[in-house]
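@channel anyone free to eyeball this complex?
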Amino acid sequence: MDQSLKTTCLHDEHIALGAKMSPFAGFDMPIQYSGIIQEHNAVRNAAGMFDVSHMGEILVDGPDAEVFVNHVFTNDVRGLEPGSILYGMMCYPDGGTVDDLLVYKEFESGYLLVVNAANVEKDYDWLLEQAKDYKVEVFNDSESWGQIALQGPGAEDALVKAFGLEDLRDLEFYTFFDLEDEEGGRVIVSRTGYTGEDGFEIYASPDNIRDLWAVLLEDGVTPCGLGCRDTLRFEAGLPLYGDELSPEISPVMAGLSMFCKLDKPEFIGKDALAKQKAEGVQRKIVGIELKDNAIPRAGYPVELEDGTQVGTVTTGYHSITLDKSICFALVDSAYAALGTPLWVRIRKHVFPGEVIKKRFYKTNYKK
Amino acid sequence: MSRIIEGLLYSESHEWVKVEGDLAIIGVSDFAQAEMGDITYVDLPSEGDEVQAGEEFGALESVKASSELYSPVSGTVEAVNDELESAPEKVNEDAYGAWIIKVKMSDTSELDSLMNAAAYSEIAG
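replying in thread with the prediction:
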């Protein structure tokens, strides 16, 4: 392993399980244990757990916390109940995306922002810079937390059994509970995830996270790597920062306008996003289904029948659950309508397909 | 630890060759299939295609990535294992049983640059 890589609090567990490890966002992370297909199916049909301790946790508190978070965040936290969570983005003034994130409204005061591992430093710097004129404290607390994502139809039972707490069944989608460990340390359990299935994300101290991992493993929950994390989120139509969102790809281009509240008084990027929404964007993220089993990969050209390139694949797989070759692609908006025939160039050949809805898999969230 | 079979020849890009006269039967090594993980698609050439030593003739696709196949020898594709189109997982299950193409070699001296099992075990240990 490259010694410059960081490790999560579960690194020893991954090695002990024989995981195939690979660098991701500066961390040495497990890509797979038993195999991507088996792990993917475990989440769709039973329960799987992911080490997501590499994710970033940034705390925002102070008298101006609500106004400040609403200034940097595309969604609207006004009136958000303590214990509730919102998904949204941070944008640059031109509408490009800084990151996509979850905002947890704390019970006492302030907010917890959960951001992508690859963007922690960038996001923290961005927030500090924007915070200058606000009475807020912004603190990067990422080192204090380990995190496990427990996902799948069996996640609720596994969680209740691990914590010995029936009340956890009452947790609603996009809400969280604050729990305490025996030493008074904080444990957050939220009903959130990145797989299209019901599930939970548990934040706690590294020691507690190692204990929870061991308990879940003993209970038969399948350890899952980043390989199937990507296949699962992709099938569920969820974007990955860097692929479907970036400084060049705005939330409007990515089809995520519903998370941009243009009726807010102001937020960074609002004017640009409003203009994109009103006038239309040049390029959009679409879903494409191929009529062949060849696999479209990120970077492959999307073409018209005459060979004119009109876009590029951003993520693609032979879908494990749906058994067909599908992809997300960034294409000229003229070719973004459902049913539009498009071709993907895969090595020496072009394969026909058509634009379909991005939510490839029917999600099973607990509403 | 991956399996390496005596009597086959191996390329640096992890293809194996079984020689029968002027026919080269070509597949990928156990090491290669293990590195790739679950193989979900095999991109095959057509019978009659010309292949060149060291040049791409197809690809294996796992869930996560695609990996080009390079022909260890030059010649004409005599047969293609089209069973792999519907059952690509056979490459994972038995890398040395799941041959991919058979090539009628135009220059059998190209075999001299390939590795034997002992030499290959040095790079695919």
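from a first look: The first helix of chain A runs from residue 11 to 16.
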